[in-house]
Amino acid sequence: MTNHELFERALKLLPGGVNSPVRAFKSVGGEPFFTARADGAYLWDVEGKRYIDYVGSWGPMIVGHNHPKVREAVEHAVRDGLSFGTPCPAEVVMAETITRLVPSVEMVRMVNSGTEATMSAIRLARGATGRSKIVKFEGCYHGHGDSFLVKAGSGALTFGVPTSPGVPAANADLTLTLPYNDLAAAQTLFAKHGDEIAGLIIEPVAGNMNCIPPQEGYLQALRELCTQHGVLLIFDEVMTGFRVALGGAQAHYGIKPDLSTFGKIIGGGMPVGAYGGRSELMEQIAPAGPIYQAGTLSGNPVAMAAGLAMLELIQAPGFYETLAARTRLLTDGLQAVADGEGVPFSTNRVGGMFGLFFTHERVSSYAQATAADTAMFNRFFRGMLERGVFLAPSAFEAGFLSSAHTDEDIAATLDAARAAMREARAG
Ligand code: PMP
User: What quaternary arrangement does the UniProt entry report (predicted)?
Assistant: First the structure.
């Protein structure tokens, strides 16, 4: 069976041929490949072609694919059953591990995806404050909950409108949007609506409009603004958690959010999410408190085993230093290749995540990210794919390194990039 044959079959039965939109390669052009297996830094498609993978299942695979320790933990757990519907010991160990690694999280609730985590955190923020409005940032993604699918207009202080049909206006009107890295806009919004806002949710390093780190002092200023106005600060660390540092972006930047959400790495490749924060807030969640949230498969023993094995591996001494150094090797290398080829190009990176932009500018805003040359990115993506390098199939996604990527993988990536940049430039 070829990739094309599978995609033809899939298109008849799955919307767009996929179970999650960006996988379809719609924005970059061409058809997706179907992965048969994955190991370390590589994916192999059903036709036997190998790819150096910088998507890492969209973040979870920080120790590389199919790590023996994670696989063995899963194999071991499976022997005892797949789901119990009662508490299991691994959930307690998971909660102990998360609260130890992320001190702002005193209590935690496990869920099954990042989307569930953010939806639940917002409900908690609303329930705990008695306020209805929330604030998010244009270009930030927090899963597909109705409150988050709100278009980021250039008029950042206006009420949001849904980007997605199906989100009721009554719901979208409660979501206020702000431009990322623009403190003055946040101050103005809070001066006007501060006492109506339940929570402000932010990706502490934006990873869903390509990769945009917060400017110096920005997160701290938001922290102070939230405290001043009784607004709960929610760090969506679904992507950044255990990615940019062991303790997440909050450890990297030294900020204490009220609530945090997690996903991806925490599940080791299984469907897991989590939200947590101060005990006095978390104790308002059912059955300790009245704010309802539940899940048939939450705290699943197999998923907990995978996540725990992953969290064990990333605590190895020097893990994040090495990961950051490799990421730097890649982004510096790509910059040198682009400069050599006369291609307008810049990069961002924090820890093990990075962004590539086809522009001369250093990108720190949504406006800049969307103004970069996406057509050139798409040509570059296809050139890289052809040469066996898999980048995220969109100009608005972050890339991820894993501890399985070697210097040789990076050297091979840079070789591919030299040819792909030349092609991309030629148009
Ligand atoms: N928040 C952030 C920051 C994310 O990057 C994502 C997914 N990429 C989500 C939430 C949603 O997570 P999930 O896809 O597991 O629902």
Answer: Homodimer.
